[in-house]
């Protein structure tokens, strides 16, 4: 098996996003004896460019243009198509992130490539590769294969472990790239929070629903999250009630997450919320109602008041973890 694979790496606040390393591991697997090229866009060469080589890339291309410092669908689509025509890879892989979900269909349409999105698993049978993706809000899975010669994939974060890094130097090629006739330009990005853990890449999530009762009710959840090094999430109901910001929303109309541990506090387990978190590896539910649907998907359940259970859990974890 020999395929040339190109991946699009993403960064956040000057650091490589973990999903970029996960994509590299899959790219290396699909490429076989072929070449893996890591592509990234920036205003200037970033410090982490060489890091991509240590995680599986054979070469790194940096597309330089100040207009690519922040994502725009037109700019990224133009740049991806340009690099594709120059590198002519067999496969392009992106993360199933906000950027990947938005730009992948545009590029696939322009290049007449097959696209399978939101891939969570890969099954190899001889020369045939089947790609697994969830459907019906995660209630079922389907296997797909490509019939086109050229492929494009988006991979859901937290489903493919990165390779162990190895010490090697790879060529980093910088190239001025032209993007033109952009209908919109990003002038400034003002983040509402800095330094917080990205929900889509978090290994542990502590999430709250309407059962937290108020914005103040999220305080014990944040304390538990602090001890575990976890991110805090929420249901749409909690967001609609004004208990927290919509950036925390997990579910069908929010973020889709797949952490190693999901601690659900005071949330019932509505189907719209389950669509965003039911693929978590271990689910712990805390709810006063023993009939709450969340217990049907939970691996461990605690029937009790979250305002009594969560502080006790936090204190016990502090003792165990020595914090």
Briefly, what is this?
By secondary structure, the protein is an alpha/beta fold. The protein has 9 helices and 17 strands. Strands 7-11-6-1-4-5-12 form a 7-stranded parallel β-sheet, with helices on both faces. Strands 14-13-15-16-17 form a 5-stranded parallel β-sheet.
Provide a descriptive summary of the structure in words.
With 323 residues, the protein is α/β, with parallel strands linked by helices. The protein is built from nine helices and 17 strands. Strands 7-11-6-1-4-5-12 form a seven-stranded parallel β-sheet, sandwiched between helices. Strands 14-13-15-16-17 form a five-stranded parallel β-sheet. α3 (73-87) packs across α4 (98-111) and α5 (219-228) packs parallel to α9. The longest helix is centred in the C-terminal third of the chain and has 16 residues, at 306-321. The model has no long low-confidence stretch (mean pLDDT 92).
Question: What attributes characterize this protein structure?
Answer:
single chain, about 325 residues, alpha/beta, seven-stranded parallel β-sheet, 17 strands, about 30% helix
Number of DSSP helical runs: 9
Distance between the termini: 50 Å
Shape: globular
The share of residues in helices is 25-40%
Rg on CA atoms, Å = 21 Å
**Main β-sheet, spatial strand arrangement:** 7-11-6-1-4-5-12
Number of E strands: 17
Q: Residue-averaged pLDDT, rounded?
A: 92
Largest sheet: 7 strands, parallel
Beta-strand content estimate = 25-35%
Overall SS class = alpha/beta
């Amino acid at each position: 098996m020999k395929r040339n694979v190109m991946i699009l790496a993403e960064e956040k606040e000057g650091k490589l996003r973990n999903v970029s390393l996960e994509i590299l591991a899959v790219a290396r697997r699909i490429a076989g004896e072929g070449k893996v090229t890591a592509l990234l866009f920036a205003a200037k060469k970033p410090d982490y460019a060489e890091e991509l080589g240590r995680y599986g890339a054979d070469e790194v291309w940096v597309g330089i243009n100040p207009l690519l410092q922040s994502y725009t669908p037109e700019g990224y689509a133009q740049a991806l198509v340009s690099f594709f025509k120059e590198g002519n890879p067999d496969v392009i892989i992106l993360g199933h992130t906000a950027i990947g979900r938005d730009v992948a269909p545009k590029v696939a349409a322009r290049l007449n490539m097959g696209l399978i999105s939101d891939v969570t698993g890969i099954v190899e049978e001889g020369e045939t590769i089947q790609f697994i993706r969830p459907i019906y809000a995660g209630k079922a899975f389907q296997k797909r294969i490509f019939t086109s010669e050229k492929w494009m994939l988006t991979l859901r974060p937290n489903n493919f472990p990165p390779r162990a890094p190895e010490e090697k130097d790879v060529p980093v090629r910088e190239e001025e790239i032209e993007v033109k006739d952009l209908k919109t330009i990003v002038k400034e990005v003002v983040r509402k929070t800095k330094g917080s853990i990205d929900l889509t890449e978090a290994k542990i999530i502590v999430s709250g629903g309407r059962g937290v009762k108020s914005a103040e009710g999220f305080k014990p959840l944040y304390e538990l999250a602090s001890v575990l090094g976890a991110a805090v999430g929420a249901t749409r109901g909690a967001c609609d009630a004004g208990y927290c910001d919509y950036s925390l929303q997990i579910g069908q109309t929010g973020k889709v997450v797949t952490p190693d541990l999901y601690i659900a506090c005071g949330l019932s387990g509505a189907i719209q919320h389950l669509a965003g978190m039911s693929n978590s590896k271990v689910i712990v539910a805390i709810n006063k109602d023993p009939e709450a649907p969340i217990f049907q998907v939970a691996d461990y359940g605690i029937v009790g008041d979250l305002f009594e259970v969560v502080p006790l859990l936090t204190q016990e974890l502090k003792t165990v973890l020595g914090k």
